[in-house]
Amino acid sequence: MNVLFVASEVAPFAKSGGLGDVSSALPKALAARGHDVRIVMPMYARVQVPGRNFEQVFRDAVLLLGGTRIVFSVFEASLPGTTVPVYFVRCADLYDRPSIYTNDHDEHLRFAVLSWAALVIAQRTGFRPDIVHANDWQTSLLPLLLRTMFAWDRLFAQTRSVLTIHNIGHQGAFDARILFETGLSDAAHNFHQDQLREGRINYLLTGLLYSNAITTVSPTYAREIQTPEHGVGLDPFLRDRRDVLFGILNGIDEAEWNPETDTKIPHHFSIDDLEGKERNKQALCETAGLPYVPKAPIIGVVSRLAWQKGFDLCFGVLPRLLQRNGVQLVVLGTGEPKYETFFAALAKQFPKQVRFSANFSEPLAHLIEAGADMFLMPSRYEPCGLNQMYSLRYGTPPIVHRTGGLADTVTPFDPTRGSGNGFVFEHFDERGLRFGLAHALRTWGRGEGDDRERWRTLQRNGMRTRLGWDERVTAYEQVYRMVAPGR
After folding, report:
1. Fewer Cβ within 10 Å of end Cβ, the chain: N or C?
2. Which CDD domains match (predicted)?
3. Strand pairing partners for 331?
């Protein structure tokens, strides 16, 4: 099939989270199955780095959106390691900014233009998509554009739309006065009328109403977002469309995240030879400036430090854990000041046990996954999550709250049966987190003798878990075929 895949971020060109990873990995997996996939994304300032080469596709296309004249050009490069073309929408006024996302007055326009430009690119290049695959609120106007402003063009006569929700907490809600600037004022009757009367426009809701199919990034999250607790106000609409709502678990790039070949870690290891993992632990201690204590487990954290990620639970739990146990903690991440302040204070209070790096480093992220003994993800909610998958791949059992994709990938370890691949707590409270950590530390024991063999079983269970896109892409193909006429 022909797939036009439109996203606000695509790794490695621009990435702020899991969306960027998926927007690279899924098109790559689809192309490997023989589909003709074209990706469209903005040409942010950060995309234009030395050493990257782009070919101009066309220049000075004009969009008249309301009273605004938008001029953009399009450049092309290949997704690294593939022949998949990536089309970059170049509009300096909209995209030459320090951040991918902003709180600027024209945020609605930045991503309305992306949706319009994606369909113009298809027109200009003669690409006839069977599927337009939109991702999150930033591209959620695409399903409505196909049904209205581009419905005249026979190029799109057989085109159907799929919208993937990566995080329903971000919806693109704006004052209704911006409707004119979206170029869809003639289609105002297609927007949710109650919200319009209340003076609001919600991009994500618009996409939910008009896409032919809706997917989200794990089966559990697909169920959760149909409830008031997790639906963030959109649960009634999702329940109405549950017959075309599918939860498809994300995968990871098993070529990049492979402890046998990873160029970002100093020592390779495998499910049959785990000795290199212990040497990575030594390297992690050296990098973090912590003493190497073989019997003391290292708990790793690589995360955005945000409310969603559940670190509030750590405030009352980790200080006592560090006081009473010989555990070490290595944290890599940036985010809300209160979480950065907390982890910085922990590092100051326990200088031989805790290191906190308030930045992001891809090599250090890989080293934490490879060198830590356990990985902590106490997320309040988690649509899918990728770090627990990286951890499983690297023999680093995750400690997680049972929610979203964490529930779909991490199963509680049963030492009697030798089954399970991590540690799971049910209730999102400090008692739940203490339970998960206590279970992990009991299983670790002293890190020797029978305890070590039990731990090795747990590690290997995780490393055997199937996490790649080959297991996921078939589900997307099934959704595409369900909605695409004659395919």
Report:
1. C
2. GT5_Glycogen_synthase_DULL1-like
3. 301, 356
> What is the residue extent of each domain of the chain?
2-251+470-483, 275-464
How far is the C-alpha of 132 from the C-alpha of 144, rounded, in Å?
12
Residue-wise pLDDT tens digits, 107-145: 999 999 999 999 999 999 999 999 999 999 999 999 999
Residue 297 DSSP code: P
Scanning the structure block, which residue is given the tokens 């430090």?
305
Please identify which residue in the block is written with the tokens 């199937």.
Answer: 466
Report helix, strand or coil for 113: helix
- pLDDT tens sequence across 38-92: 999 999 999 998 889 999 999 999 999 988 899 999 999 999 999 999 999 999 9
The binding site for ADP-alpha-D-glucose consists of 15
CATH 3.90.380.10 fits 275-464, yes or no: no
CA–CA gap between residue 137 and residue 112 (Å, rounded): 10
| Tokens encoding 35 | 């589909």
Residue 331 pLDDT:
98
439 CB neighbour count, 10 Å cutoff: 18
Tell me if 423 sits within 8 A of 412, measured CB to CB: yes
Could you tell me if 422 and 462 are in contact, meaning their C-beta atoms sit under 8 angstroms apart? yes
Q: Give the DSSP H or E segment for 407.
A: helix 404-409
Please state whether the predicted TM-score (pTM) of the whole model is above 0.90: yes
Q: What is the dihedral of CA 313, 316, 319, 324, to 10 degrees?
A: -110
Is 339 in a helix, a strand, or coil? helix
- How far is residue 109's CA from residue 92's CA, in Å, rounded to a whole number? 13
Q: State the binding site.
A: 15
Tokens 């279970």 locate to 439
Using DSSP, how many helices (H) and how many strands (E) does the chain show? 17, 17
Q: Where are the extended beta strands (E) located within 352-434?
A: 354-357, 374-377, 398-401, 423-425
pLDDT at residue 408, rounded to an integer: 97
Per-residue pLDDT of 250-305, as tens digits, reads 999 888 899 999 999 999 999 999 999 999 999 999 999 999 999 999 999 999 99
- Looking at domain 2-251+470-483, its CATH class is alpha beta
Say what the pLDDT of residue 427 is.
97
